[in-house]
Amino acid sequence: MHCHICNKSTKSFVHEKTNIRYYYCKNCAYIFKSPELYQDFTLQKERYNLHTNDENDAGYKAYFQRFLDFTLPLVGPVKTALDFGCGASSILSTMLGENGIECAYYDPIYHPDTLDDSKKYELIVSTEVFEHLHQPKEVFLTLLKHLKKDGFLAIQTQFHPNNEEDFKKWYYHQDPTHIVFFTADTFRVLAKDHGCTFLADNGKNMLLIQKN
Ligand SMILES: [Zn+2]
Hints:
CATH class of the domain at 46-160 and 184-211: Alpha Beta
Oligomer: single chain
Strand content: 15-25%
Distance between the termini: 31 Å
CATH superfamily of the domain at 46-160 and 184-211: Vaccinia Virus protein VP39
CATH topology of the domain at 46-160 and 184-211: Rossmann fold
Bound molecules: zinc ion
Radius of gyration: 17 Å
Low-confidence stretches: none
Mean pLDDT: 92
Shape: globular
Strand order of the largest sheet: 5-4-6-7-10-9
Number of strands: 10
Structural class: alpha/beta
Order of helices and strands: EEEHHEHEEHEHEHEE
């Protein structure tokens, strides 16, 4: 199986406890579950509905605040943004609004009709989305089309430990809707291959790319 990010060949390993097969690309550190495990949106929605995203919940706001604390100082004074894959909630776009950034939001499951194809943004944010994507490279390229020149793409997804034994013990892939996994290096390769500059990551779960 070839890597869906950089097209190099992958090696696979099986998790002894779950029998799930994973494919690992040494070149870009991308890991993906065997594609027959990918779920359609209906199944994913059932699982998402188990989460209660109360917009007034202080913990939930603090969680997004950490993402904004990483992102906003690096991007400077942008005025327009898109929250891609916001889920049921529009809380992050509201918080961006409180920072003077007019933020649209889109979610393929909960808000499928809110994406204006003709619009381009200075900033696109996408938190806890990429680990659900069957085709992350294609979505990345779609997002680039919605970015203005010199625009920013800020992504949050948990970086995997990049070691087979540690990966197997890692909690993040145990969610059945989490199907693909990255490190900052995966996004470095994506950025370089598609004419972008990788600007920063926090070593854990956040990164920032600029479109050239
Ligand atoms: Zn790769």
